[in-house]
Design a protein that fits this description.
Strand content: over 45%
Number of strands: 11
Largest sheet: 7 strands, mixed
Structural class: mainly beta
Shape: elongated
Helix content: under 10%
Number of helices: 1
Distance between the termini: 40 Å
């Protein structure tokens, strides 16, 4: 089993900052990528940012220049630094990880996708 534990959500005023963290633990041989998705009320879950184990980041256009994703491979942790927050950033943010559970899965290219429980981010105007 793999667990993703998120932290860092909360309430902030527009223009403020928050930093989300997500730590993966359990049956992990190697992590291919980790990322953050969000879901606002009445909307579909959307990609916010992802990062490969090699450090290549990818962002949705609406957060480029404001959010920065980073990782700590030694501790299987991903961070999302969110600056210049806007009310439209309000959502539940979910951590995501694409993981090889063991060496056989790694050699076969078999990935398991895991999700965290979500953390609420609320930006007031």
């Amino acid at each position: 089993q793999v667990q993703l534990v998120e932290s860092g959500g909360g309430l902030v005023q527009a223009g403020g900052s928050l930093r989300l963290s997500c730590a993966a633990s359990g049956s992990i041989f190697s992590i291919k990528s980790m990322g953050w998705y969000r879901q606002a009320p009445g909307k579909q879950r959307e990609l916010v940012a992802t990062i490969t184990s090699g450090g290549t980041g990818n962002y949705v256009d609406s957060v480029k220049g404001r959010f920065t994703i980073s990782n700590d491979n030694a501790n299987n942790t991903v961070y999302l630094q969110m600056n210049s927050l806007k009310p439209e950033d309000t959502a539940v943010y979910y951590c995501n990880a694409a993981i090889y559970s063991n060496s056989y899965y790694y050699t076969q290219g078999l990935l398991d996708v895991h999700w965290g429980q979500g953390t609420q981010v609320t930006v007031s105007s």
